[in-house]
Amino acid sequence: MTGTNGSNGHVAMHAATRLRQLLSGKEIIIAPGVYDGFSARIALGEGFDCLYMTGAGTCASKLGQPDLGLATLNDMREHAEMIANLNPNVPLIADADTGYGGPNMVARTVEQYHRSGVAGLHIEDQIQSKRCGHLMGKEVVSTDIFVSRIRAAAAAREKLGSDIVLIARTDALQTHGFDEAVKRLRAAIAAGADVAFLEGVTSKEEAREVCRLLSPSPVLLNMVENGATPSWTPEEAKELGFRILIWPFAAIAPAYEAIRSTYRSIKETGSSGVNPEFTPSALFNIVGLKEAVAVDTAAGGSLYNKV
Fold first, then answer.
1. Which residues are catalytic?
2. pLDDT tens digits, one per residue of 235-250
3. What GO annotations for molecular function exist for this entry (predicted)?
């Protein structure tokens, strides 16, 4: 699909189509986790070709709650739309949890994510009262229900004429073992999923084998630092056979450390210790001040000439 860039009239590639192009290439797709508009702006400023909206980060930042299925479709869609449209040329992969209900709700999720500009989304086989994939005590639905979610998502995509990339995630590795997890992913691919996502991979042997067994379908690696999966570099992940590498904690973990340290400094010393170079203007430039000034100036305004 294509869309029109209103600023110059040129036809721009839809983000989902761009993501499919990246998947067809030889390089691994590296998508750092972003949890809000500010972290997304920073990632865009560093020139990443793809972003990942973490569900756990969205729950923590938007709701101040743990990742226990508390975020609704509206919570996630609203967040994803904001991030996806900061730069529509950079594909956003977004967590879509379980699809938020039965087939009709899954179809609605795909429709809303598509209209919000999301390039790819993953739907999992946990029960509705889900939890973060790196917590214990998970429960999954039957293979039939999981496949019905993927089938509903694929049908919605076809109805829309959308290129949105469907990623099937299974959490069955921890509950039913490796063979059952692979069986579920194969069934999901047959039902229309584009990418497979085995959550909670625990070893290089598992990683290499799942990529081999599901080839030529691309497989995504969830690189959660200090979680169930060992830490691998992009080069190592590519060698194992993965095509997409997401880093959900890449922004929110260091943000926690930095924010807590600053707040402690204020409490204990009365000073924040913030770098003097980080001025209000520096902050606003990160989040698009120059672009906003350019829009105003092009329209004949002069309100922001002195910012």
1. 52, 67, 95, 97, 122, 124, 132, 169, 199, 222
2. 999 999 999 999 999 9
3. methylisocitrate lyase activity
